[in-house]
Amino acid sequence: MERQEIINKMNSIFCDVFDDDSIKISDNMTSADIEEWDSLNQITLVVNIEKIFNLKLNLVEIGKLENIGEMIELILRKTNP
User: Fold this and answer.
1) What sequence ranges are listed for the domain Carrier (predicted)?
2) Amino acid 57: pLDDT
3) How many Å apart are CA 25 and CA 9, to the nearest integer?
4) Considering the chain, what percentage of its residues have pLDDT values greater than 90?
5) Which structural domain range is residue 15 located in?
6) 15-27 pLDDT, tens per residue?
7) How many CB atoms lie within 10 A of CB 42?
8) Per-residue 3-state assignment (H helix, E strand, C coil) for 14-52
9) How many structural domains are present in the chain?
10) What tens digit of pLDDT does each residue of 48-58 get?
């Protein structure tokens, strides 16, 4: 899977989870950039990412992520072994 395809799918996931079609994710975006990004929405994001990309993320992997760019890179590694 190409990086841009992951970005497009991730952007759709974020728009759905936060019910905001104006969201445009970027590599350096963090939870601090979206007011509604709380622990419940974090879980919803992870569940949706796992479903859409057909992969499993563990707590250690999730805990190490500093921003959206790192999340995209993790998905790239898991979808292109």
Assistant:
1) 1-79
2) 95
3) 11
4) 96
5) 3-79
6) 999 999 999 999 9
7) 13
8) HHHHCCCCCCCCCCCCCHHHCCCCCHHHHHHHHHHHHHH
9) 1
10) 999 999 999 99
Tokens 């998905």 locate to: 75
What's the maximum distance between 2 C-alpha atoms anywhere in the chain?
34
**Dihedral angle sign, alpha carbons of residues 58, 18, 28, 69:** positive
- Could you tell me which of 57, 80, 79, 66 has the C-alpha nearest to residue 33? 66
Task: Look at the pTM and tell me if it is higher than 0.85.
Answer: yes
Q: What is the CATH number of the domain that holds 49?
A: 1.10.1200.10
Is the pLDDT confidence value at 81 over 80? Answer: no
- Cβ contact 50:57 at 8 Å: yes
Grouping H, G, I as helix, E, B as strand and the rest as coil, residue 80 is: coil
